[in-house]
Write a structure and sequence with these properties.
Blueprint: E1 2-9, H1 11-15, H2 19-38, E2 42-47, E3 55-58, E4 61-64, E5 72-80, H3 84-93, E6 101-106, E7 110-112, E8 115-117
Length: about 120
């Protein structure tokens, strides 16, 4: 079963980190990504650029992205595991769980090998 772990955390908090703190966090994420990969469950992982660098498309209209909320969608891990409990276990191990909010969502369908599959 595919699940997506959606990471949301404060962009302002990340911008306030020292270079040493950023490096420590990068090493934690490297270890987490490697553990997912070695377990054979990692499908994809993405960390997003800041919201201000994005664009919003709505009804054909394109505008600069804005998000004044306390936390912003900051990245995702897509994993393929046996069940929701396994997905939650992996989410709890994510470094971002210590300072952000993680949502675990099961995929209803996925586009794999040129077609939709459930």
């Amino acid at each position: 079963m595919r699940f997506t772990i959606l990471m949301s955390y404060s962009e302002a908090g990340g911008a306030a980190l020292s270079p040493a703190e950023m490096e420590a966090g990068r090493l934690e994420f490297d270890a987490y990504g490697s553990a997912l990969h070695e377990a054979g469950v990692l499908v994809a992982a993405e960390v997003f650029t800041p919201v201000a660098s994005g664009l919003t498309v709505h009804g054909g209209t394109v505008t600069a992205s804005t998000d004044a909320s306390e936390q912003q969608l900051s990245g995702v891990f897509v994993i393929d595991v046996a069940d929701q409990a396994a997905a939650v276990d992996w989410a709890k191990r994510c470094p971002a769980a210590a300072w952000g909010t993680l949502d675990v969502r099961q995929s209803a369908v996925s586009f794999v090998g040129g077609g939709w599959t459930s």
